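One such shown below:

_____
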Amino acid sequence: MTQQHKARNNHTRVIEAKKNPKQTAHVGGDFSDKLRAYRDLHAHALFSSLGRLVASRLNAVLTMIVLSISLSLACGFYLLVENAQQLTSNLENSNQISLFLRDNVSLASANRLANGIKLDPSVQTVKVITKEQALKEFEDFSGFGEAVRALEKNPLPIVLQVIPKNSLEEGQNVETLVENFKQAEEVDFAQLDMEWVKRLQLMIDVAECSVVLLGILLGLAVLFITGNTIRLEFHNRKDEIVIAKLVGATNGFVQRPFLYSGFWIGFFSGIGAWFIVTIMMLILKQPIEKLSMLYHTSFHLLFMSFFETISLILIASLLGIVGSWVVVRLQLQQLKGV
């Protein structure tokens, strides 16, 4: 009996739903109507704020130019560090040790020393560079070939290039190996080529920290400039906002167009900064590549990648929104206290 009763109730509900379809769709209709209304409000605020920026052309353009220059400074410094890192990317895996032999050491003695070093289990390869080879390399890369050829005697020593094994960790082990090489009578001077690379890497690390600090400072500048622009717009529309508040407008409704104004300012400023940085890099591209050719290296200037470009525009837009939100909240609180 219970199952039959439930079946009759279900059948009754189906009949009522067919007779009154609007009543059953009432909840779903309210939700969809709210979504459409929410979408329409945001679309209106989005495009009306863009229209206001277009209407105030001079003020908006000047603000976005200043913000674009500020953002381009941070991006340009960032790209400078990124390009500088190319100089060490191919050298970080090198731990070559150069042994400069005494001037009175003959080539035969240098070969015997090289063969003895090869027996060391921590050494991978040893290459002997004769005085003639060293002089030829110096003439080719220094640009002082004529001056060197005018000398009566070759002043360059024999050099042994020692490559430790890859399993040998950099640091104390390599330094110990260098100290052992210095004990040989034939060695006049031993140099670990990684030392200057480490110094260069430390300088790049300092530059990276500077990029972060500069980015923070310029980000704050974007916040303040955007906030000041929105503050002026808020005061220009103060009477309109007061009337809207009197008829029941919420803070969210009032601040929505200002947030979108901040978004547009940041968005176009990010695009402007990308254009400024790209033009600067295009101007520098050809001279830098010509300079690298003089040193027989292939250095290709790095531009902003797609991900970096999108990140720049998103960060600029977010800074514009945050700056607008802070200022509008403060202005609404002051307006409430009046």
